[in-house]
Amino acid sequence: MLKRIIVLVLAVAMVLSLGIPAMADDNPSKLTSATHEKYINGMGNGKFSPEGTLTRAQVCQMLFNLLVETSGKETKSFSDVNKNNWFYAAVTELAADGLLMGYPDGSFMPDNPIGRAEYIAILCRFYELEPGNTGFATDISGHWSIKYLASAYAKGWIEADENGHFRPNEPITRADAVVILNRVLGRVPDKAAIDALDSSFGFTDVPKTDSAYYDIMEAATTHTYTVSGGTAKWIKGSEGFTSGSAELDKQLWDLMAKAADQSTMTREQMLKSAYTYVVNNFRYIGYSAHYTDADKGWEKASAELMLKNNGGNCYCFAAVFGYLAQMLGYDAVPHAGTIKMTKSDGTQDSRDHAFVMIDKLIYDTMYDFSNKASWNEIRLFGVENGLTVDEQVWEYIF
């Protein structure tokens, strides 16, 4: 357990406010680097405000969104943080995990700008500390955060400025916070992919000449990626994916992290892996709702139902796989149509059914799921319409 040496009351107040907890270096919480969803937004009106500051609450929410998993623990409370605050879950989770604390008077002061040293200390608590050069900057000697700064320097997260200073007590800028966090997460911007983005991406106050431009674009643009030659390459068409719901997007990204390994798989392998994951990890639930392609929003509603109950009907299966395929940059279209099965004697069975089409090929997770016990293989991944299945001709109609 870490021992605090009380030198001055003021110093103690600073340490408490920055949240140096017992056993902090052994904290099990981890930040995700498996997926590359955006973790920071602009400030509105097309601006990012790179020289602006981040508040304590904003940093908590940013890191909360990147947690591999959350516990929902609420073991610590603050006088100025309540359940109506947008940052409530983030602050209480990180505080319960011992990653931060409040002030001696019981407050958290969520609107206070976060300092450079404070920001580094919080990031360091997600990982084991490494011994490092405590003299890499001339203005950190004797600073309460020196072991965190030395560790961050050893890991390559930070460096001194051109004057040999780190400026530990200054508020960190939004640009610097992003550059550092990308290094922590191992997210190296794909400059070629970023240069190819259209004008709907980017910020009017962050020109390409800005030293933080590519890091800001990496952090503020959702995308999937493959790894080539040890370098992450954005998958074209995946930029800015959204289902229209931030909560559903988060669930889908968590699902993608389980379904496919972006660091080792090709795009095609990830599509097959995502398809197989949906087939093997959800159950059938016979909901009464039926849709047609004319119904708006059925994909979102069906995906939410599937992820909430870990199962669903054909619309749910199609919606979830359709979203995963879109996240991989495919022009995947979930269809709420019908399927007509024609037997060899000419008799037909037609029923409402949902499936996904990519490049005119059919992807039917629902029927692969329902027949997996007898088929023992995936048979409806990227097949042509009108295929023969068990001596029946299956025609997908939309």
Name its key features.
14 helices, 398 residues, C8orf32 fold, alpha+beta, six-stranded antiparallel beta sheet, two-stranded antiparallel ribbon, 10 strands
* Count of DSSP-assigned helices: 14
Low-confidence stretches: 1-29
Q: How far is the N terminus from the C terminus?
A: 64 Å
Query: What is the mean predicted local confidence, pLDDT?
Result: 90
Shape: elongated
Determine the structural class based on helices, strands and strand pairing.
alpha+beta
Order of helices and strands: HHHHHHHHEEHHEHEHEEEHHEEE
Number of strands: 10
Rg on CA atoms, Å: 25 Å
Q: If strands are numbered along the chain, what order do they take across the biggest sheet?
A: 8-7-6-5-10-9
Binned strand content: 5-15%
